[in-house]
Amino acid sequence: MRKRLLFMLLIGAMILGNIITAAGQTTMPKMSFRERTLPNGLHVLSVVDKASPSVAINVWYHVGSKDDPDRRSGFAHLFEHIMFKSTKNMKAEMMDRLTEDVGGQNNAFTADDVTVYWEVVPSNYLETLLWAESDRLAGLTVDEENFHSERAVVEEEYRQSILAPPYGKFFYVLQQKSFTAHPYKRPTIGSIEDLEAATLENVQKFHATYYRPDNATLVVVGDFEPKQLDAWVDKYFGAIPKPALSLPRVQTTEPSRTGEKRFTEYGSNVPLPGVGITYLVPSEKSDDAPALTMLDILLSQGRSSRLYQSLVYQQQVAQSTNANADLREDLGLFELTAIVAAGKKPEDAEAALRAEIKKLQDAPVAAAELEKAKNQIITSQLRQRETNNGKAQSLGDAAVLLGDPNRVNTDLARLQAVTAADVQRVAKKYFSDENRYVFYYLPESLKPAAGSQNPPPVDRADAKGGFAR
Amino acid sequence: MKTKAFLNSMLVALAVVISVVCVRAQTPQATPPPPSAPRSVEVPKPVEKTLANGLRVIVVERSQVPLATAQLLIKSGGEVDPANLPGVTDMTASLLTRGTKTRSATQIAEAIEALGGFINSGGGWDSSSVSTSVMSSRISPAMNILSDVVRNPAFTQEEIDRLRRQYLNNLKVALGQPGSIARFVAARVVYRDAPYGHPLSGTPESLPLIKRDDIVRLHDMFYRPDNAILVMGGDLTPVSAFALAEKYLGDWAKPATELPKGTITRPATESGNRRIVVIDMPDAGQAAVIAARTGINRGSPDYFRGIVSNAVLTGYSGRLNWEIRVKRGLSYGAGSVLDTRRWAGSFLASSQTKNESGAEVAALTLAEISKLGSGDVADTELTPRKASLIGNFARGLETTGGLVTQVSALALYGLPLDDLNRFVGSVQAIKPGDVKSFAATSLNADSTSVIVVGDARKFLPDLKKQFPQVEVIPVAELDLNSATLRRVTSKN
After folding, report:
1. Which CATH class is domain A255-456+463-468?
2. In chain A, which residues have their Cβ closer than 8 Å to the Cβ of B170?
3. Whole-prediction pTM value?
């Protein structure tokens, strides 16, 4: 595989007529993983890497904030916090005793489609952590007191991420209003009202519904013996029954947009105005996903990127700017945002963002610029794979969200195969007038006076990257 | 060239910890299975040489991933900012990558990003730095760019004005957040008008005063090979790295003049009278609470007593987070930092909470600092906190960038590079009595200041009961240019 990848990179360089032969000198080391599925449905992936005496353990549950129960926005994330409270054999916070106290670490994050729990520990503690993860998959015994104190923590997390930072509400509204039907429109962090309404009964039901071996993927990367790992996995996870009930899945589809919509939100603490544009784009499994990722890099990675050069450097209409191909399981969102520079107008920033979109539609990207984006992708993937936990997350992502763990080794070739014509075609296809929503975020002081209707209170956060424990 | 001592001793040390956790083994299912025998590892060891022009070059090889990082440190940072020009050192460093005599800002960005990498520059408190990270096959062209930006910056007026506007915009955003306001205020409270007291990237008033001449003079004075350290790490051999250093920086001429000495005013080492400061920000979505005081310098003999004491307070299961988040649900996270520098750095314990609980969190924070100096830490608590500190240190070395950062810090403060391998032993040697005495003398809660930034209506009455001397400054009147913190307004 190492050789094959090198070959593809060289072919790519030749097709583009690119002179950067250095591309051939760096190959992406193949991730050589083992895969098995227990009779109860637990999917197990593992990679041996003995470079350091440590091991990363991930448990990916295929449930995220899109699965929040009705009128319980934020519940999947609240539930993730509760998973660190008591289980049959562990009292609250024992997971920290087994990780932090022996020099390891743990955390978890909730995104729209998945909830992921992870630990990094000295490798001689692997069996201990497999025991602990199996115990919380088997069931929770959390009490009212722990439930209430942890819910208060999540409410502070809401305040810290949405209310305290000047643009928390802006990025939240952008997510919330970009979808009309699909549950992606609901907050990952939720609202204080919905969090307050959550009960212990909701916790038990959510666990029974989604926390089951056939909805989980265990990923182990680091220093271990494969046969020993298999034996431990059988011992600790094998006896957990697979429920007879079928797994509920979101069936709602998001309708296509049929025309531009414009939203203006006001905040009490807005140092500089914000401007955002979103387009609906397909699922991360789509064949257009690699070109959308390439558009994200071309527009926003580094100071030579198109948005930085145009908005921040040349026109100086933005304090900062970003593009994000926020690709998810069911469908995605392509977001362009700018925080408007002092003395400039939101309209100027919007025009500059749209001018960059139009340039991508009107002319193919130059070969050298495309090659630059591809080099940036290789470097960032190498960086991701410097640690065992980084490797485990790449593998889990491929298996759970892309539906095939082999994608951890084949995706780079898909990205390298993107052509200038692909980029232009995809920019034309999705960045259309009908598919555009535009958001302005302005200080309260600019709100039109009496007569105009107040927007409803806002309660959602930027879902990118998810919320951690 | 390599040593096993480091992680080996770390794992042996950790192996004793589990006895705290696994009391009374019953059935294999009811209690956690015990750990197996720990395994040792080899850790790369830095090697160094000094070039003829005085440039110290350090190389730390690690070849698992084909990445390489190079960092050039200038041993002068924001501490040398003239009192009336906060931000000039950081602006000078940031401007390096905004144009050289032969490359424009855009050409620099395009060149390094075409290699798939990045180049960043900026000022710290005690150093200024330029770092680049690329696939290891491209380290030579990346070093070429790094050398050019350090030696030949153009400092054009156009780029100075552009960067100044960016800094002013960034400050506007930072001054909209209770957390960043609290950190700015804490520095003024701790250091008053001495160096380290100003915002590193300047103030809304100081940035417009910075002239091209100030920048050029600062660059001439401090950017010289005998005031610099180059650290290279990752997938490269010492032989090839030394050759690159010689090729791109070997002819960097050392000025005939001596390095300026004694121009630096030593920052305050005594807090003086503690202050209780409230910045009233009526629209704040949360209150930011900081307890702040002077700490210790990096070379202090108290360094390990200090970082172990701090580890008892900070981290997920540290006392601050335990009391404030886990037990009471008052915050998403509470912790502390013992920021050691060339001169005495600071100790900051911080968290954010709903405005209504600002006073309660301030009291809890001070109580935990105070408790550390008045009672013994049990071994059953200290042992896991030390393990956590050691684990964080070891993970910090896992990436090429992390490795270079750690080695750079040792080199900057003139510490032996093999301190990397002594870290574990030094931490393990700290006893409960060391923590108690350090906390009692160096973290005394009674002389620790408190800063709360938020909607004062909701916490001021409770805070006044604890601290009648509280100073309240409306955010609109906040002045970061002096220790008074209050804008002088003409009374008409």
Report:
1. alpha beta
2. 319
3. 0.92
